[in-house]
Description:
- This protein is of the alpha/beta class.
- It has helices spanning 36-48, 123-126, 129-143, 145-166, 173-212, 229-238, 240-246, 267-270, 273-295, 312-324, 342-347; strands at residues 2-11, 14-20, 25-29, 67-76, 79-88, 93-97, 100-102, 114-117, 218-222, 258-262, 265-266, 300-304, 335-339, 357-361.
- It has eleven helices and 14 strands.
Amino acid sequence: MAISKLSIFSFRNHEKKEIIFSKGITVIWGENGSGKTSLLEAIYILSLGKSFKTHKQSTVIKNGHSSFIVKGDFFSRGVKNKVAIQTNQKNKKVIKVDGKISKKRKELFGKNNVVILSPEDQIITKGGPRERRNFFDRLFSIINKEYLNTLQNYNRALKQRNALLNNKKSLVEEIYLPWEEKLSIHAVKLWELRKKSFSDYTNSLNSVVSEYQKNLTLTVFYNEKNYKKNDYEKLLRKTRDKDVILGRTTTGPHRDNIDVFWEYKNLRDFGSQGEHKISLILLKLAEINLIKEKTGEYPIILLDDVFAKLDLKRSKKLVSYLNSIRTGENKPVQTIITTTDILNVEKSGLKLDNLGVKTHKLD
């Protein structure tokens, strides 16, 4: 899996930019504010239909312009494909795949996979359960269409029940029952899929940790639920009065707790800065491995100014690990790196004069 060309128009601080990527490693370098991260953001949008930096994509439109356009030429599972996305000031989005309009963003999921490691991702280990649920829901949706469909069905039913809860006049039980039944069906299915997905992810994480840092114990604890449909329906009825007061559904998969433990201590509460950095790297490497295992191809790896945040020892370790994972043709996995200091990347063990390495300077 790889991207060969990226074209962007009126995106962030770029009026127009086109970049040709190496099938192996591309290093994009330049001063802060030159738009390096914006290029990774554009690739991410082409993969998942949304930004990793903002929920409102209209905010990335260059000042003075009415819309942005991002285009990418990809190569996935031996087949070329082209993706183009345009978003205007009203956040209206048009997605085209090979020239044909796609009505739903979910059609992009699993088509051209990427994994990004950026400063924004530290919220996965430092934030609350919601941030970790979002991380894992996105990953599991990429590798399993059934998970994606079940999650969307659950969220639709949840939204409808919450709308009833917010309408204080809707106190008649008969109004809630159909939606609570639907919510229960999708909730139980989602819990089943989440349990299986976490089992697979745990195996991937254990494999990465054993190679990367053998003596470390790093675990992701998912407080799984084993409700049957009727049990969850009873719970919804039991909590309905409280939910009406709060205006939201207080129990369900959208409230699942997920924690990361470093040597048996809760990383969010007791982890050092160094432990957070290493844990995030390992969580992301496990994500890369799981995507490879489930889809048969490595995703495109995006590293946003990662080496500026790591000491030399940890930087070298990351480069060494990335060099060890290879495609079926024994070639390096496509990796796109941004940095303000290209020498810092080279000191980390990446040989810039290698045939498969390409550099691109932004002014």
